[in-house]
């Protein structure tokens, strides 16, 4: 049932070329220049005219919401907020008629997310579910939605569900941007083609796992890790830290790379591995200067970069190369080394990566 892999987590990481493909299939047609999503069609006017989108989720799904915030704001020029479901549900949030809530959940059963959308629905919001499990409570409580089609995810750490969430949310943003006229035809066509190319790029990336395995051996005894990124890759830093905590029990924190100067930099010494998600994008130069700051304090820099990035290479102790992609698409690729690094460190520490202590696959109690 693990299809020849040692763990479900590894199997699910390796399934991503297929699951992302399945998620795009029948929706994205880059040649025709179309995105077909029935949920979006049904609420097209509401999505185009809304003043606000609120992403509501927990854990890894919340990280997908954060990436989507950057994407929707960039492409659709809609104000987006990203909320932890547990906070949103208890704090009497301001909800106006016409607000769109996007609930993101792999299981579709997370109690806080479910109650949060039920409350918002009662106050006149339109609820859109981005859910993996078909027929689950959150999918049923939503007005419309789009399934992620990632197939059953058994490993407690969410992997393939996350990249499928990103694929769905990116398609949604592109469809809305097209209808709203907030994207140029050229950028729209480029991003459609970029999205279509993701499964193949993920396959390519998954062929270079040996390097990551070696890194895991090298860093498995670290006591803390810092993960840094900016822009579209900032949530990937958070996700990298969460994966490592869950699977290896190593303390890790994710931060926006510039925010590090406001406190966490005090932690940096020659024993601290700092993972930079530093693929080439509009933030790249800024990330490089953050890398210099870590280097100057003797931190061990591990950077996730694109080929030929000599500047990053010269500042890094170790590098992981990922295929180049538009910055909107990049998180779907840059997160994969984060998943693998956590996995191999967990295995190297002899831990039960599929069932980490204290965790349940879905949190159906608050
Ligand atoms: O099923 P959901 O997506 O609603 O679950 C949300 C979180 O509980 C989940 O992402 C959790 O953080 C995972 N263990 C992360 O790997």
UniProtKB/TrEMBL annotation:
User: Active site: which residues?
Assistant: 361 (for fru-6p isomerization activity)
One GO BP annotation of this record: fructose 6-phosphate metabolic process
Is Repeat one of the keywords UniProt gives this record? Answer: yes
Per the record, its GO cellular-component terms are: cytosol
Localization in the cell: Cytoplasm
List residues of the SIS domain: 43-182, 215-356
Query: Which GO terms of the molecular function aspect are on file?
Result: carbohydrate derivative binding; glutamine-fructose-6-phosphate transaminase (isomerizing) activity
Protein name per the record:
Glutamine--fructose-6-phosphate aminotransferase [isomerizing]
């Amino acid at each position: 049932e693990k299809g020849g892999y040692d763990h479900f987590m590894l199997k699910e990481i390796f399934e991503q070329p297929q699951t992302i493909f399945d998620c795009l299939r029948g929706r994205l047609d880059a040649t025709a220049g179309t995105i077909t999503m029935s949920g979006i069609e049904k609420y097209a006017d509401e999505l185009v005219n809304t003043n606000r989108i609120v992403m509501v989720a927990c854990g890894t799904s919340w990280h997908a919401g954060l990436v989507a915030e950057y994407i929707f704001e960039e492409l659709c020029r809609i104000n987006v907020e990203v909320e932890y479901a547990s906070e949103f549900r208890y704090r009497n949030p301001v909800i106006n008629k016409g607000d769109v809530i996007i609930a993101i959940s792999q299981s579709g059963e997370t109690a806080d997310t479910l109650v949060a959308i039920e409350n918002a629905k009662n106050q006149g919001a339109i609820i859109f579910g981005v859910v993996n499990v078909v027929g689950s409570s959150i999918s049923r409580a939503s007005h419309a939605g789009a399934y992620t089609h990632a197939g059953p995810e058994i490993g407690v750490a969410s992997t393939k569900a996350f990249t499928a969430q990103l694929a769905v949310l990116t398609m949604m943003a592109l469809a809305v941007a097209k209808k709203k006229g907030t994207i140029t035809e050229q950028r729209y066509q480029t991003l459609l083609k970029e999205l279509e190319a993701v499964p193949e790029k993920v396959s390519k990336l998954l062929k270079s796992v040996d390097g990551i395995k070696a890194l895991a051996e090298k860093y498995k005894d670290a006591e803390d890790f810092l993960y840094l990124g900016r822009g579209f890759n900032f949530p990937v830093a958070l996700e990298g830290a969460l994966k490592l905590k869950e699977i290896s029990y190593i303390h890790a924190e994710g931060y926006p790379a510039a925010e590090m100067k406001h406190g966490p930099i005090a932690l940096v010494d020659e024993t601290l591995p700092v993972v930079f998600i530093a693929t080439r994008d509009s933030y790249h130069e800024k990330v490089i200067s953050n890398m210099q700051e870590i280097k100057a304090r003797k931190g061990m820099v591990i950077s996730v970069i694109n080929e030929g990035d000599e500047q990053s290479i010269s500042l890094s102790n170790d590098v992981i190369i990922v295929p180049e992609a538009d910055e909107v698409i990049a998180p779907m690729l840059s997160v994969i080394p984060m998943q693998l690094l956590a996995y191999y460190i967990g295995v190297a520490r002899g831990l039960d990566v599929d069932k980490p202590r204290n965790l349940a696959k879905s949190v159906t109690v608050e």
